[in-house]
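Hi P.,

Sorry for the delay on this. The queue was packed all week, but I finally got your sequence through. Input first:
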Amino acid sequence: KRSGPCVAVIAGQQVFVVDAGSGASRRLSELRFPQGRIDAILLTHFHSDHIDGLGEMATIRWASGANTSPLPVHGPEGVQRVVEGFNTAYSLDAGYRHAHHGDTVAPLSGAGMVARTFTKPALGELATVYSNGELKVEVLAVDHSPVDPAVGYRFTYKDRSLLITGDTIKLANIEQFAKGVDLLVHEALAPN
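Then the structure:
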């Protein structure tokens, strides 16, 4: 009855999703979440339970919003391989959907995803991965050993803030950047 990891973040008119686990798109649909308006997906790491819904989410975003550009997928080094794999797997389907629905529903230019790679910051540092007006999204290092890279995201919108850690053990780096946030979404793992 659960879906894979997925957190939707709405900041004004901007819509982001952190991780895209299995069934996430269906749960978002049940909530009437506007998947066609997703601006980007941010991945915390590449375990299958955090990425196996990417293809479905990108397809729903494309076809339900008549998007004319591919879905940006931000992630640490390695995200390019993940995105290329999904794009290859869904390439035939994109052609079929476009042939069936045309540019009005499924413009071919909007099919698939595009990787936005960043380097995992060092402990004690935040790195900005997205900034637009009053919204800033920063990335921080987390520890999900032996998975590496693994990151969390801090959203700051106007005077509100949110920290999403993804899978991690307790870490001073998280405590440092969680101070003063309005909401912490933290999936703690047992120490190794």
